[in-house]
Amino acid sequence: RWAKSHGKNRVELYDIEYDVKLRRLTELEHELRGAIDRDELHLQYQPVVMLPDVRPVGAEALLRWQHPRLGKVGPDEFIPVAEECGMINRLGAWVLHQACHQLSRWLAEGHDVWVSVNVSPRELHAPGYVDQVKDALRAHRVPPQRLVLEVTEHAVSSDVEELIRRLRDLRETGVRIALDDFGAGYSSLGQLRRLPVDILKIDHSLVVKEMVRVVVELGHQFGLEVIAEGIGEQRQMTMVVEAGCKLGQGYLSGWPVPAEHFEARLESATSPARVVPVPEQKRD
Ligand code: C2E
Ligand code: MG
Ligand code: MG
Ligand code: MG
């Protein structure tokens, strides 16, 4: 009898948790629909730096959502919602446009820099995505090789042949492709070898002793540029540099920051005579 009522309570507790989660997702979905029009979204830029001198050479655009009542909602929470409810294509188009706009301004000011944007598998497979990229490049007069599209390794698990075709079409426009979160998914070396990508972004979970060296060498063997992600401490930085990795990204070399802050960083890097104070970089 106790066991029975206990079991029942457990079920109820589970139901409540489930209910809370479901409500949150429903609310996010509902609020996300108007987020662009209400101007609640913006991009932050996290520097990708040359090692070991830590000079910024590129930036990853990361989407931020600030809701008046819900506060800051992280992309790890709302991107899956957007993917689920089919809104990712609209969000992605907005991100692409914003990032190209910003990039064209930096280039016009003479900065030697590139920008990467994250692309969800669902965007990649949408008909017309390649044209969308071409249009964005043309509209903002961005040389294609200045734009990097990041495709997560998790996208490799589904239809590899189709993915290869898509990436080839994209690459024909002249943009560069980065395989994001490499090492966190389950793609095989055979698959990696066949993927038409230019850059390998090593997932932070692989930035541990020996692993990082092996993956850096593998990437270079395959003729790829390699970026070590999630370098948060000096210890990791040392490891990455010793592994022969030329590019890095992480909190240690720069948090994701608003465009103006990244720009200040670019300016202080190109003109050492003029010291531009970089605003305190806080966690968003
Ligand atoms: P990602 O593409 O792998 O981006 C890197 C994530 O690692 C970012 O989280 C960044 O803030 C975080 N990070 C940077 N340095 C460090 C570090 O030193 N240590 C640790 N532990 N983490 C670090 P964020 O901004 O929360 O984004 C999470 C994910 O959301 C991204 O992972 C990406 O998959 C997705 N995302 C973000 N913006 C977009 C977007 O515009 N479109 C799409 N489709 N996905 C996006
Ligand atoms: Mg990324
Ligand atoms: Mg990543
Ligand atoms: Mg990630």
TrEMBL record:
The keyword Ubl conjugation does not apply. It comes from the Bacteria. The lineage of its organism: Bacteria, Bacillati, Actinomycetota, Actinomycetes, Micromonosporales. Keywords: Membrane, Transmembrane, Transmembrane helix. This is GGDEF-domain containing protein. Residues 25-270 form the EAL domain. It comes from Phytohabitans flavus.
